[in-house]
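ok posting inputs for the GN1 job
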Amino acid sequence: MMTQPDAAVVAACTSFFTDGDFVGVAPFERGHIHDTFVSGWRHEGGETRYLHQRMNREVFRDVAGLMRNVELVTGHLAAAGQADGFRPLELIRARDGASWVESAGECWRTFRFIEGTVSCDVCRDTDMAYDAARAFGRFQRRLGGLDAASLTETIPQFFSAPHRLAQLQKAISADVAGRCDHATAQIDFVSDRVGTVPVMEDLVEAGDIPVRVVHGDTKLNNVLFDVETGAAVSVVDLDTCMPGWSLYDFGDLVRFTAATSAEDEPDASRAGTDLALYQALARGYLDATSDMLSPRERALMPFAAQLVTLTIGMRFLADYLNGDVYFKTTREHHNLERARVQLAMVEFMEQNEREMLLT
Ligand code: GN1
Ligand code: MG
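and the output
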């Protein structure tokens, strides 16, 4: 697998404090934002692998702030120890001691590869949903001791649905890619729901729900499961770990993990929310966080699922209208297909509000 490495990639990977002799490096397909690679290093004790990321500076304008957050979060998690078999991400320092390097004009960081684990794009069953939700809940809880104000907002107003709506409205007005005509149904769908958009921000502003450190990208594939035991052992992707409202994480969990289709399923009629998986997610999340969440927050869990799904739908739609400048795409209407799926899930959740109530 590790052949013909690109010289710039090798130069970046070898500037970190890795252990052994460099064997090779290969791309590792992960996420919509960064470029990820895995390298191998041979030493007397065997071979060690590392995960390297070339960070997207269009998306993360303040790489120093981002990496300060990652240092704080990984440091806090490491200090909390490996309770419950949890394996915190380990940031590997550059040879000059920094937490990231700039190499040939690009910014890079490195983590130790967490061996013996797998990540899944599709949720197998309710047990897996429960475990993933509990892992993210525990993650949030463990970070409860970290002062949210000490973290930088890596992407300003990232969780704000009103901000995402404003970005969408701007994209509609500009219509730079001439795509609005392909998306009239989706634009109308969002227009019909503008009343729900500010609900969470208003509650936060009024002090009715607290600001806490959240993960911010609780996709199922950001949990690593032990290949032997199947247990959820690690939570990865700390880019959006910053101050926010806790239920964002629950909403995003439902959006992705309880989905009946892939996030980018071209046939939106397949999109929906699996209610058994939803209930399992709620149980797992609450098992980890029930003593942290207020009654108000608990009551808002079903709504958060709808709002976060709508918010990500608005983001995909805006990016489609902007000509695909943010999320990586592999086909022409990819972002529109992603948006359609999110909005179809919102509709499903609206129609199944009673079934989504938690007892
Ligand atoms: C992006 O790159 P990835 O898959 O970790 C995005 C998330 C979205 C997600 C949708 C920094 O995450 O906010 O929910 O795509 N990350 C950023 O799949 O924008
Ligand atoms: Mg992410």
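notes: The domain at 126-356 is CATH 3.90.1200.10 (Aminoglycoside 3'-phosphotransferase; Chain: A, domain 2). The mean pLDDT is 95.
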